[in-house]
Amino acid sequence: MTDLVETFEAERPRLLGLAYRMTGSRHDADDIVQEAWLRFEQNGKSLNIPAAWLTTVVTRLSIDRLRAVDRDRSRYVGPWLPEPTSLEPTPDGFIDTADSLTLAFLVVLERLSPLERAAFVLVDVFREPYSSVAATLGRSEPACRQLVHRARAGVRAGHESALRPLDGDLLHRLVAALLDGDPDALLALLSPDVVLTSDGGPNRKAARRPVVGPQRVARFLTNLSRREPDAMALEGGVNHGACLFIHTKHGPMVVTGSARGDVIASLTLMLNPDKVEGAEHPRAMR
């Protein structure tokens, strides 16, 4: 039993990273990895390559989860955003893994089918060979190559390579402009096509549609800061970018986003209490 636990714990960060990229939810990732452990506990002693078996189990559970929640997300109140989470990078041989954990990138992955998402994550993030991906997905290698081809096209169409996660400097300047009541300084920080998206879920009041354009985003932020004069903001990090944890009388909020050059390209306001909770507990993933 000790050997099984040690083997599984060695794989846990990778499995959590895989499940989180697949589902966009820390809670779902935790549940999937726990289910994988229960199955591994029953079957682990007979496995020749535990890592490959666990990858297959987690991938298939993630696909099942995506299919199950698809209808729920279509009825979600307001925009649905991936659940932010505080991540501690772990040393590994994969390249660009941090980029695949940004919220902007995870939003793009939401537009892929479950099979496209799985094939893309396994091949382009975890560098799995097509032979392994074919076995995991129960598809032929040519079919998996086609899935990855379509997924890459979708990712290129939806994700701007020049975007990077917000850094602390931009957030500090944003807060300073709001506290100083300086509209010119605030507008200077926002790109001409800036978009602000709020996810409040069914229980928190939030903008039900994305706010587009610097004038509208600046007005939204100004009004929000005026409604919450006693809010306390703490700097932190989620998904390899800087963020603000803001505690208000209505509940906590996580503010983060992306930048293009020296201006803010997008802002996300996470108010859904179920998702905010996951951002305040650092965990190791890769």
Structure write-up:
- The structure is a single chain.
- 51% of the residues lie in helices and 19% in strands.
- The protein has 286 residues and is of the alpha+beta class.
- The longest helix has 25 residues, at 50-74.
Mean of the pLDDT scores? 87
Q: Which overall shape is indicated by the principal axes computed on the Cα atoms?
A: elongated
Query: Uncertain regions: pLDDT < 50 for 5+ in a row?
Result: 89-96, 281-286
For the termini, the CA-CA separation is 26 Å
Radius of gyration: 20 Å
Number of DSSP helices? Answer: 11
Task: Provide keyphrases for this structure.
single chain, 286 residues, alpha+beta, two-stranded parallel ribbon, 9 strands, 51% helix
Compose a concise summary of this entry.
Helix content is 51%, strand content 19%.
What is the secondary structure topology, with strand pairs?
Blueprint: H1 2-23, H2 26-43, H3 50-74, E1 87-89, H4 103-109, H5 114-125, H6 130-137, H7 141-158, E2 164-165, H8 168-180, H9 183-188, E3 190-199, E4 211-212, H10 214-227, E5 232-238, E6 241-248, E7 251-260, E8 263-270, H11 273-276, E9 283-285
Parallel strand pairs: 1-9, 3-8
Antiparallel strand pairs: 2-7, 3-4, 5-6, 6-7, 7-8
